[in-house]
Write a structure and sequence with these properties.
Chain lengths: ~280, ~270
């Protein structure tokens, strides 16, 4: 053991990664906080320290509240749908032996296609004039041009893209439930529904919560899915927090206020993560 | 009866996942004249005209090459930096091991938008704006937490006795890492590498803000900004999306088990 202790200096193994993380994630996080306290435009004038003024502006900015609502709606609706649909699919797939590899392959496709690319695919299917969705449904809805539909259209695409991940997680969870529990239930004459509600779901709850955490955090920072599909329009009806912050930063070149918006996304994700973590801890104890 | 129902369910799931992509394939093979009207649902004849158009008229080759370099470079760097860190966390005595792993989990949850403005300023100041290096550095760092988590999980499955035995036989710590732990955890390296590659292949926000021209434009941005003068060239977009999706599809098919393992190991452990 002494030999081991003398030669083992974990510092050298951890240093490169630690430096990268410090330089490219932690330092920018501090810097964005500092930027958010400035009036700083890339177009005119030197930066000026203005304290919390950007945050006060944010509190009365209707476009910010609209974006916050859109983000929350997007996150809640898409995550809820993904969990319900994912559970249904996982339960269907669980007992399947034949065709399993094929199904896994099919499910990895939506996950593997870059989000920006799948947004262009769905844009084409949503087209009001010649889109296949209107054609098959026999409707004439302007899915992406109508404020009432556009955000829901983005949610439908996100559900398509992200449900496979939830299914894969839940399948792993289902496989870890001991077979004996099911046999005991069968001996006791429990119906399929009782088994589902009393055995499968409670034992699956931890994995479902993990899926909930991952998907919620991801959904709260949504950018490319919506940005490529609608650009935040029509009439800001699909503008999420990340999109609003991006526009202020890189189209308005207001790095002060834009950074305050970026910090607000960070805070929202952190709050969502904390709530989810508490749920998980509650369920596990 | 039950198995028939289950079969129908499986078919439905497969269709749900595949149909949007298949529709894109069909669009890419549809003659231009038939793109402006529906019906007919199926094209009357198939053509490669859209593929010919994207490979002659546009910069698609350049963009695909950029993405390949960025994703490949990111994967190699992330493994080169992540594997030693994961080795230290799994085999050596690291003080604050739990705190380090928890901190990295926290970092992996950072919304990209929160760091994009300072990174943009820093990269511009360093003269790295619109370069592949800017993307590789950023992607390597942001994929590091997941890579380290995954690799730590996989390295921990290598029996500690093997490591100790190598040390007793005269290997240095690094020698034991390189000759014993790494080869035994090769599937883990593969899984982590694949997830990193696909992340870097797909990333959009940083690529959109850190690049300005074709010099460093990657596939997601190239497809999102696909040029259209008057109307959206859906046939060409379809051909381009099919082309850039094929490589990841091939990866996902060949390494299906590793990817599923990586996706679930990373998540279920947390």
């Amino acid at each position: 053991m002494t030999l081991e202790r003398e030669l083992d200096r974990p510092l050298w193994y951890l240093l490169p990664g630690g430096l990268l993380l410090a330089a490219v994630t932690l330092f920018p996080l501090g810097h964005v906080l500092w930027l958010s306290l400035q009036r700083r435009s890339l177009l005119h004038g030197p930066p000026r320290f203005i304290g919390l003024e950007n945050y006060l502006r944010l509190a009365v900015d209707e476009r910010f509240w609209n974006a916050l609502w859109n983000t929350a709606y997007f996150a809640m609706a898409s995550v809820a749908l993904e969990l319900v649909l994912g559970l249904a699919i996982a339960l269907t797939l669980e007992r399947a032996r034949r065709g399993r590899a094929l199904i896994y392959g099919a499910m990895l496709l939506p996950w593997a296609v870059p989000t920006a690319v799948s947004a262009r695919m769905w844009e084409w299917m949503y087209d009001a004039e010649i889109g296949v969705i209107n054609y098959l449904a026999g409707t004439h809805v302007n899915w992406l041009g109508n404020p009432a539909w556009a955000l829901n259209a983005a949610i439908a695409m996100d559900v398509w893209k992200s449900t496979p991940f939830v299914v894969l997680l839940l399948l792993t969870g289902l496989q870890s439930i001991p077979r004996d529990v099911y046999r005991a239930a069968a001996v006791d004459g429990a119906s399929g529904w009782t088994v589902l509600v009393r055995i499968t779901l409670p034992l699956l709850a931890p994995v479902m919560l993990v899926a909930l955490v991952f998907r919620t955090i991801d959904a709260f920072r949504v950018f490319d899915a919506v940005y490529v599909l609608t650009g935040g329009g029509p009439a800001d009806s699909t503008e999420t927090l990340s999109i609003y912050a991006y526009k202020v930063l890189f189209q308005g070149l207001e790095f002060g206020y834009g950074s305050a918006l970026a910090v607000s996304v960070f805070v929202c994700v952190a709050i969502a993560a904390l709530i989810c973590a508490r749920l998980v801890r509650g369920a596990l104890s | 009866m039950r198995s028939a129902l289950r079969g129908a369910g499986l078919a439905l799931v497969a269709a749900y996942c595949l149909v949007p992509f298949l529709w894109q394939v069909m669009t890419s093979l549809r003659p231009g004249a038939e793109l402006t009207a529906l019906p007919p649902l199926l094209p009357t004849r198939l053509t490669l005209e859209h593929y010919a158009a994207i490979f002659t008229g546009s910069s698609l080759f350049r963009i695909i090459a950029n993405s390949t370099l960025v994703a490949g470079g990111t994967t190699l760097l992330a493994l080169a930096v992540g594997a030693p860190a994961a080795f230290a966390l799994s085999a050596l005595q690291v003080r604050g091991r739990t705190a380090i792993l928890a901190g990295m989990l926290g970092i992996s949850m950072f919304p990209p938008i929160a760091t994009v403005s300072p990174l943009f300023l820093a990269l511009s100041a360093l003269g790295l704006h619109d370069t592949l290096a800017a993307l590789i550095i950023t992607y390597t760092t942001f994929s590091l937490p997941l890579a380290v988590w995954l690799l730590t999980t996989f390295f921990s499955t290598v029996p500690r006795e093997l490591y100790v035995a190598a040390r007793v036989d005269g290997c240095t710590a690094f020698g034991a890492f390189a000759r014993v732990v790494l080869p035994l955890a090769a599937p883990g390296l593969l899984a982590a590498g694949l997830l990193t590659f696909i992340f870097a292949w797909s990333e959009f926000l940083f690529a959109l803000t850190f690049t300005a021209t074709e010099a460093a434009r990657t596939i997601p941005v190239g497809i999102a900004l696909f040029p259209g003068l008057h109307e959206v060239p859906y046939g060409e977009i379809a051909a381009a999306t099919v082309t850039v999706t094929l490589p990841v599809m091939a990866l996902a098919t060949v390494f299906q088990r590793r990817i599923v393992e990586g996706l679930t190991a990373g998540a279920v452990k947390g």
